[in-house]
TrEMBL record:
<feature type="compositionally biased region" description="Basic and acidic residues">
    <location>
        <begin position="442"/>
        <end position="453"/>
    </location>
</feature>
<keyword id="KW-0408">Iron</keyword>
<feature type="transmembrane region" description="Helical">
    <location>
        <begin position="57"/>
        <end position="78"/>
    </location>
</feature>
<dbReference type="Pfam" id="PF01654">
    <property type="entry name" value="Cyt_bd_oxida_I"/>
</dbReference>
<feature type="compositionally biased region" description="Polar residues">
    <location>
        <begin position="462"/>
        <end position="476"/>
    </location>
</feature>
<comment type="similarity">
    <text>Belongs to the cytochrome ubiquinol oxidase subunit 1 family.</text>
</comment>
<feature type="transmembrane region" description="Helical">
    <location>
        <begin position="413"/>
        <end position="432"/>
    </location>
</feature>
<feature type="transmembrane region" description="Helical">
    <location>
        <begin position="98"/>
        <end position="120"/>
    </location>
</feature>
<feature type="transmembrane region" description="Helical">
    <location>
        <begin position="192"/>
        <end position="211"/>
    </location>
</feature>
<keyword id="KW-0249">Electron transport</keyword>
<keyword id="KW-0349">Heme</keyword>
<protein>
    <submittedName>
        <fullName>Cytochrome ubiquinol oxidase subunit I</fullName>
    </submittedName>
</protein>
<keyword id="KW-0813">Transport</keyword>
<feature type="transmembrane region" description="Helical">
    <location>
        <begin position="15"/>
        <end position="36"/>
    </location>
</feature>
<keyword id="KW-1003">Cell membrane</keyword>
<feature type="region of interest" description="Disordered">
    <location>
        <begin position="442"/>
        <end position="485"/>
    </location>
</feature>
<keyword id="KW-1133">Transmembrane helix</keyword>
Amino acid sequence: MFDGFDALLLARIQFAFTVSFHFIFPALSIGLASYLMVLEGLWLKTGKQLYLDLFKYWLKIFAITFAMGVVSGIVMSYQFGTNWAVFSDKAGPVIGPLMAYEVLTAFFLEAGFLGVMLFGMNRVGKGLHFAATFMVAFGTFVSAFWILSVNSWMQTPVGFEMGANGQFLPGESWWDIVFSPSFPYRLVHTVLAAYLTTAFVVGGVGAWHLLKDRTNAHARKMFSMAMWMAALVVPIQIFAGDMHGLNTLEHQPPKVMAMEGHFESHPDGAPLYLFGIPDQDAQELKYAIGIPKLSSLILKHDSDAPLDGLDTVPRDEQPPVAVVFWTFRIMVGLGFAMLGVGLWSLLARMRGKLYDWQWLHRAALLMGPSGFIAVIAGWVTTEVGRQPWVIYGLLRTADAASPLDAPAVGASLFAFVIVYFTVFGVGVWYILRLMKAPPHAGEKGVKRTEKGPVRTAGITPGPTQNPGHNPDTLPSNHEEADDGR
């Protein structure tokens, strides 16, 4: 059934599908891990049961999200060998160690402390448990650090030398590779996006429960915390995105030309096009609606500054303009919608109506999934805008693919689509079911089996050896703190 298809196109669709599906879960787990750390820290500082209840409520959601993120990401590594073997061979000496560092640092760190975080609340001291939560949160950041280092090097490759066999080999300093020119901007922009994704998920869940019962103290607290995050961090994210755009203009100008819809050069100041229909064959933006000279003002800080257009770029080196043009506007549009909700919440807070304005709650509920859409749109803008290069300016995507027939790639793509939507669809449904239940006093957190976690070293007395002893029901340190003892 795939005989008439292009194997390269199918390989690109397959990787785009798997990485987009995967990206949904880290976008939530990175921010949610930090949110859990904040909740536990506030509980330890204040002794208020409410913070512990919220910690246990979101811990269950984090556990499932983290697990699906790990599983959905495993197949991408295999695709480097199956669909992109030429890329792996040529770039392996550079990107291989960076991805190995991600496993040796972030993954082992998260795996080492995740069990304590999920199941150790009643088994270790409060300080040690908080340390485990902190290390998991830190591990998610370290994971993002290394993965974005790999991607940034592919976008702005530096610090390498070409081997006799055509391989990219590390140069004198690994630091030049790790901290490539686009890496700091990409890291800040992506991590802030993950935090905002989490904030609007938490805010959306809080708004859902406030619409049902505005007296729910737990819903009030999570909604308030989420709206503080939106009001304070969205402006920082807009500034970080602007800096990232300026960096992209310096190192990947055709990408910015596609984002702006500039087919023609503008020697006396370029307009900012709000709307238009890109026609790459005709090399024009049809039905364009724009603000004169505003693009030059934003990108060059001078309304009369000249800006080159795609007419300066060979046709075979131009990215697909329509995709980049529209995904960029989706990302920016959602960013300003987030800003609007954040400012609206500040107004409501100042008037003492944060928990009373139902239209604000409806807007927050509607914006709940906005972070996921924005990060996917931003990722598509970044990756499609890099085309036709897989290593920018040095290795074309068409030259990086494995010599496979279309039916082989198409069959695996079809299998991925079926399995991903089935397995992870059920996981997402279960997460939504957990979110639908209102948070309440005495949240139980992650449930354990009757025998508890599997023990691989030594034997620890458990409930089955002493029926009268159940660590999950005995008074614990946190329960003593809650009643003032």
